[in-house]
Amino acid sequence: MWARVAEFMLGCWLLCSPFIFPEEHRGAVSALVDFGLGGLVMTFALLSYWRPTRYAHVGTLLLSLAIILLARIMLAPDIPPAGQNFMMIGLLLLMFSIVPNKSFDAPEAWHRWLSEMNGERPTI
Hints:
Largest sheet: none
Structural class: mainly alpha
Order of helices and strands: HHHHH
Number of domains: 1
Helix content: 55-70%
Shape: elongated
Strand content: under 5%
């Protein structure tokens, strides 16, 4: 779940970006876009901890693609510092969103097989 923590922190960075990059360095990206996308990224990261919505991080994958395309299309050809920040956050979110929730655990089928081999009842 370390990737969800990193996604949450990047969502916090998106919320802070309008204050770090003042209006003259933002180009066509409004602060409301940063607030909205940052809130959605944080929401998807938190929803991934709940078992019924454990695949909510796939929404972050779609959001990251939207962030990258938004910055590339709206801010071309001369991308200001805030737009470069926006694109880097999108690329980082794209990278983290493909990491599974329990990336260090063995698959559930392996847990069941090991418990059957030991004569125990499956715990998962």
